[in-house]
Write a structure and sequence with these properties.
globular, alpha/beta, seven-stranded parallel beta sheet, Rossmann fold, 10 helices, 2 domains, five-stranded mixed beta sheet
């Protein structure tokens, strides 16, 4: 069997790129031949590994058509599309539709982001992706409920396939916390790229109230500015967060770690945390989501 994966791809600093790389290795371990069509974000000069057979330049619509022609000519059995609105070109990533409508091979689309439609065009793009896909996978029952509640899924073959995790040997929690110098703190963390839709400012704004009840609170913000955000706006979001910390007089309660954590480091920060905070926003200001780790 020959499978093609259409996605961002390592060495791009992108969670979906790493997911696609792991998926490639898992399929190859089962004896499947895998070719990768990498969607390049034009942020940095990526040197792709040998399993990348073709590169789509994100904002070149013609590249999507040429990629479809390439796959049609390669006697492929199936195409796996890793979908997230921001990784494809055009409004709401609609350039991927040019690829999907031309491909003659069965397509399975994994929806990494499933949200209610923000506008009519997003609704149409999502609906067409569902219609073009021979099967769709989502990663949670919550995502499935959103699809059924907001889109026409009649005739769609939708499956839940959990994200999965890598297994790493990990140090004891107390040792990790001691190494990070946070043994005596109650740690809440947000880990990942910095960009305005992460809503980190809302968690910072909550700190003055939180520290009245938890006097040893520490908010650990692990991540650097998202490459796409940095290309357009520089480090403006990070600088905004730093100013907010100073304004609210919570410098002793916030620690920025400006890095893109490798998977093992990522897990260490998770293990070291008492609470994970996910204050993401979608054109609104929702309450922060807190996940208790211990």
């Amino acid at each position: 069997m020959k499978v093609y994966i259409v996605s961002t791809y390592v060495p791009a600093q992108c969670g979906i790129a790493e997911y696609a790389s792991d998926l490639t290795r898992a399929l190859e371990n089962k004896g499947v031949r895998v070719g990768v069509v990498a969607v390049d974000q034009d942020i940095e000069n990526s040197r792709y590994p040998s399993d990348v057979e073709l590169v789509i330049r994100r904002d070149r619509r013609q590249d999507y058509l040429e990629a479809a022609e390439y796959i049609n000519s390669e006697d492929a059995d199936i195409v796996f599309i890793q979908h997230e609105y921001g990784i494809f070109g055009g409004r709401w990533g609609h350039y991927i539709l040019h690829f999907m409508e031309k491909v003659d091979v069965p397509m399975v689309t994994t929806l990494h982001t499933v949200i209610p439609p923000i506008d009519d065009f997003m609704n149409k793009v999502t609906q067409r992706i569902l219609e073009y896909s021979d099967a769709v996978t989502v990663m949670s029952h919550g995502s499935l409920r959103i699809l059924y509640g907001h889109y026409n899924v009649d005739g769609c073959h939708i499956h839940i396939v959990p994200h999965g995790v890598r297994i790493f040997p990990i140090e004891e929690r107390d040792h990790i916390r001691a190494k990070l110098g946070i043994s005596d703190r109650f740690v809440m963390s947000t880990i990942g790229f910095l960009s305005p839709n992460k809503g980190i400012e809302y968690a910072i704004e909550a700190l003055p109230k939180i520290k009245k009840h938890v006097n040893n609170i520490l908010y650990l913000i692990v991540g650097e500015t998202h490459p796409k955000q940095r290309k357009i706006y520089g480090d403006s979001y990070y600088e905004k967060l730093v100013k907010l910390v100073d304004k609210l007089n919570v410098r002793d309660q916030v620690l920025f770690i400006k890095t893109f954590p490798e998977k093992k480091e990522y897990i260490q920060y998770l293990v070291a945390s008492d609470v994970i905070v996910i204050p993401y926003t979608i054109n609104c200001r929702p309450p922060a989501v807190f996940l208790h780790m211990h």
